[in-house]
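Sat 14:20. Reprocessing the chain from the morning session after the first attempt stalled halfway. Input below, unchanged.
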Amino acid sequence: MAALDPHRPASGGAPSAFRRTLAATGLLALAALVAMAVVMTSGLARADALLERLRSSQDQLAQVTRIQSDVNRMRADVATGRPGVAARVVDVEKALDAYRRSVAQEILGPEERSQTHAGEIADAGALARMFTTLREPFLAGTAPPEVAESAFEALTDRVVVRERAEAGAASLAMSDLRRTITVLAVAIPTFIALLGAAGAWLMYAANRDLEHQVGARTSEIEAGRAALAEVDANRRLFFARIGHELRTPATVIRGEAEVVLRDPAADVERLRASLGIVAANSQVLQRRLEDMLALARAEDGRIAIRREPVDLAEVAHRAAALAEPYVRANGLQLVTDVDSVATSRLDGDASWLQQAILALVDNAAKFADPGEPIRLTLSHQATAARITVADSGPGVEPCDLANIFDPWRQTAAGRARGGSGLGLSVARWVVEQHGGDIRAQSSPGRGLTVVIDLPLLAEVAARP
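Finished this time. Tokens:
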């Protein structure tokens, strides 16, 4: 890719004109933002004043309405001779005083204050004075003069009408302000968005060729990086699994050798049996080393599974024989129940299937309670062979059960008892390579059971 010259004109236009246009677009957008901020600030201040005006008008309307109601009740109480007039007189005086203070403290604009506020203050004082002419007759239990009552009622009616008008005017002003702010809130961002779109188009027009080249090259790099990452991930995971698998036969070989060496009275038969176990596990180690060499030659980082007819009963017996010394070394017993009557032949890799069974037994040996057996079972289903490995350990919590086959996933109990968290992952990988299914069943405190179903060859599955 050629080096970029900062003084070279952008694709299709002069650089100075492009910069001037872009700068003007930015200034217009900034001015629009400032205008929007000013409009919103003044609009919020105006809305706050209108809300206060509306609240004040509603409070005053409620106070005057309450005064009217109390005076009407006093008139009815005097006419019927009911008690309680004195208390109502006190309530009306308090309401009149509250109304007068509310009118005096009301926040209005200069024009509104000059036109209406003086009249409201005068009416508030007139209401208080008029009520003094009604107060004494009410307290004496007689009806006030009709003229005084009529004048008080007319004034309160006029005040009610005015307060309602003020509340309506405030509500109307709020609606107008809301519409104005809404229009501006839509118009200004739209204008800014149009400016942004224009600037983006200018930048796109100036840089589209460079973006195309960079995008194409980036796609090539990303594709190569993804392919390398997949190969590397496959290799790393497989080598981790291989390392885990090598641990089991190596442990058996060492354990068997140490047991025989500590027994000076071991006879020939005992030595031959121990050497047989060492030789069998050495074969497993050799096969895994061959797989590692094959993996090193594989371009995609994957190991190939061999495909040939396999007698699963023979594989289970061989796996049990290899696992028995290791289980015994942990103070446990391996109980094997292999259905040898029904032929369980399938198309697969005997070495990997054996390793999957060993991984399950190895996992069970870590958790089984001392004195309780580990059970390895092979049964013949309608179209599949079923392998079951069960222990009597602490089991697995339901929340962890679905994840125990994930690589490097261990429960708290598994971490406490050692291991790498790959044994069950190896078993699942082997089963999936053979088109089978693996699952776990457990209840806390009642052990773990792992079940493998493997498809049989067609001629075997067709037998009654």
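Residues 146-261 form the longest helix (116 residues).
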